[in-house]
Specification:
six-stranded mixed β-sheet, 8 strands, 43% helix, two-stranded antiparallel ribbon, single chain, alpha/beta
Length: 361
Amino acid sequence: MNALFVLLLLPLLSPLLTANGKRFRLPTDPGAYLTQEVHWFDQTLDHFSPTDHRQFKQRYYEFLDYYDVSNGPIFLKICGESTCPGIVNDYTSVLAQKFGAALVSLEHRYYGMSSPFKLTTTENLRYLSSKQALFDLAVFRQYYQESLNSKYNRSKVESPWIVFGASYSGALSAWFRLKFPHLTCGSLASSAVVLAVYNFSKFDQQVGDSAGPECKSVLQEITKLVDQQLPLDGVAVKDLFGASTVKDDVDFLYLLADAAAIAFQYGNPDVLCSPLLEAKKSKQNLVEAYAKYVKEYYLGKFGASLNAYNQQILKNTSLGAEGGDRLWWFQVCSEVAYFQVAPTNDSVRSPRIDTRYPHSR
């Protein structure tokens, strides 16, 4: 067991400056999961009320194929701001096999099938917060430890618990270790957004730096052209990008800014910059060249959804596949922040994307 603690009791990882306000999504391919067998338990709705005893059903998964019943640890993989369809087969399964660990994963309240209410009205979202989610994890940790002890006919066994997370769930992982040090002996917090930034103009600055001078200049030229063309014929411009359903102009501009940023954040700069530089060199229409990238890569291969930028969709309070975007925007605006606004000078994205924009949603 010593090797395990040397590996996982490292200092918490610092949040990356490229932290993105977009939701972290798990794979959709069933083959990417160790298990998708669903389990449920009764979770407290409001951990901070002494009089409210309401509960809701929260979904979780377990994978015990590698578990050493005698002294194996428990790896808690925290699901964050999306539906949680199972336990992903990733590096944690390699660690679990090496150290004889049980793998367990809890779906975040409100997301996926773990919704306390049938409607996601603003009133009903009052219990959606990282603070409530941390106590969800603490309650679940105690429940599952007792469940595992009962399953293997053990008495008062306290396994070593290590929590894992990335991005927002990485922040939960770090905070859980700090808030409940008696319930866990280690935390891996990858790209953890632990320090909320309100005016996050550095994100756009990093996009420009990552693009390099030539590509950055072309992106800035495209932004200016779109800003000029939108007031003249916004319908035609949006149609060009296959985004006619995005009615609000600033929502549309945010879509275009995200599309560029994703190429650098996910390590595919050539997919964006090469065709744009070629279009510039051959004096092609730059807006059309960028529209081709957005449609074929960002909305196509990458799989971004226009609904995430459509305020009418985001106002829909019924539960459904697109509900996660509304939930995440609520968390962003109420506590997470990281608003990716345009810097005062030398911005890649439109200056219309400022701190007033998120609050208009």
